[in-house]
Amino acid sequence: MTVSLGEEIMLLSLDDETGAAKGETAARWGVAAGMLLELVMAGRVTVRGGRVEVFDPTPTGDALLDGRLDRLVRWVHGASSSRKVTDWLTREHAKGSQDVVASLCARGLVTEEKYRALDVFPVRRYPEADGTVERELRARLSAVVLHGAEPDARTTALVALVHATGMHPQTFPGLPKKQVAPRMAEIAEGHWAGVSVREAIRNLQAAISAVSVVTVLTVVS
Length: 221
Description:
By secondary structure, the chain is mostly helical. The protein is 60% helix and 9% strand. The protein has helices at 5-13, 24-41, 63-77, 85-106, 132-145, 153-165, 168-171, 177-188, 195-220, and strands at residues 45-48, 51-54, 83-84, 113-117, 121-125. Strands 1-2-3 form a three-stranded antiparallel beta sheet. The model is unreliable at 214-221 (pLDDT under 50).
């Protein structure tokens, strides 16, 4: 089963047993960036100079990505000037995560559980239903990060986003960040992906860093 970068990031963040998101804020930024990067890799979108543009509005055939593409087309075309990547991530990180979780449920990879905390606050959790895809995903990441295998373009993109969002604990639980971060940075800065993808990755890394700082400052203030 083929899943998108956004879905892969969400799978890494969800606890298999409880279904709670670990590092939920980071995962949301990663999911939004992952789906945008998917559209870059599909030749539908370009991301350069901190800006996002629609290159080809033709549907990809993937319902999840096409939903993002449709929203992006309307957002870009509704502007009098070029759109910033940071603005798109800020706009989409919550809605995008909701859509990705819904897609994972529809695929049968996770299941939705609802209850009320303290009998008042509605809570939703998404424990694992079928771990096949996540096991393959983690094995692929371990091969390139821990064992030096050469990554393909998709794995390069995923590692770069995980590294940018700081999701090292969720991706390699039990391992200290200093053990995996250098290799992940090497992969993110390497030449395994095409030129346009590498440029998009660097733009998204910078954007994630920017929106993360704004989020922290907002919470503190």
